[in-house]
Amino acid sequence: MSRPIRITLITALLTLAAACAFAKPFIKPNDRVVFLGDSITAQKLYTQYIQNFYTAFHPEWKVSFVNAGVGGDRSSAAVNRVQKDVIDQNPTVVTICFGMNDAGYRPTVDPEGLKKFSDGMKQLISMIREKTQARIVLLTTTCVDAKKNEKLVGYNQTLAAFVDETKKIGQAEKLPVIDLHRPMLTQLEKGQAVDPAFTLIPDGVHPNEAGHTLMADTILKAWGERL
C-alpha cells in the first residue's frame, strides 16, 4: 500500500466521528476511572490513550485511572472480582466491556451463553451501584478479523448479538452505551477494500495500536471531548 493511502487510512481512524452520548464533557475533575474488561482491556492501550488525553489536555482535573482488565474474562466471571478490582478502588466512573469471550468463539449464537452474559452484566451493574456512586458506562465488545484467523469466520455475526444485548441492557438500566464494534468493523472493511492485507487486529482478536486508537477516540468523542 502506498504511503498516501496509509496516511489517508490512519487519518480516517483518528478522525472517525462517534455519535455523542453526552451533551457535555462526561469526565469531571478528580474523577477516578476504572476500566473493567477482558484481555482487550488488559492490553492497556486504549485505556492508556484515554489517560494520556486527560493528562495532556486536562492536567488540572487530576483524573486518575485503574485498569481492571483480565485475559479470558467474561461478565459472569468478573462478578467474582468486582469487589476487589472495582469497588475497592473507590471509582467515580466505571466502564464495563465484555462479550468477546462470552460469545464462546462460535459461528452461531448460543442462547444460554447470551443469557449468561446478560445476567453477568446486570449483576456487575447491580453490585457496583449497590456499593458505589460511580457513573457506569457500557462499552460493547469490538470485532474480529477472520482473515487473520479462519477459525473466526462468522464470529462477527455472533458478536453482533452480544452488542445488541449490551445496548438492550443499557436501555433497561438507563446507562449510556458506546458501540466499539461497528466503528472498528467499518474501518477494517474499508481498509481491506483498499489493501487485503490491511488489519487492525493482527491475531484476529486483539486490536493493534491503530485499533486501540480508534477505540479511545470513539470513547472520548462519546464523552463529549473534542479531538
Description:
The chain is α/β, with parallel strands linked by helices. The protein is 46% helix and 11% strand. The chain contains 9 helices and 5 strands. Strands 2-1-3-4-5 form a 5-stranded parallel β-sheet. The N terminus is likely disordered.
Furnish the topology, listing elements before pairings.
Blueprint: H1 3-14, E1 32-37, H2 39-42, H3 46-57, E2 64-69, H4 75-78, H5 82-85, E3 93-97, H6 111-131, E4 135-139, H7 155-173, E5 177-178, H8 181-194, H9 209-222
Parallel strand pairs: 1-2, 1-3, 3-4, 4-5
Helix pairs in contact: 3-9, 6-7
In short:
Helices cover 46% and strands 11% of the residues. It is an alpha/beta fold. It is globular.
Instruction: Give the uncertain stretches in residue-range form.
Output: 1-20
Q: Structural class of the secondary structure composition?
A: alpha/beta
Count of DSSP-assigned helices: 9
What topology, given as strand order, has the largest sheet? 2-1-3-4-5
Radius of gyration: 17 Å
Shape: globular
Average pLDDT metric? 92
- Provide the β-strand percentage band: 5-15%
The number of E-state strands comes to 5
- The ordered string of helix (H) and strand (E) elements is HEHHEHHEHEHEHH
C-alpha termini separation: 27 Å
Range of helix content: 40-55%
Main beta-sheet annotation: 5 strands, parallel
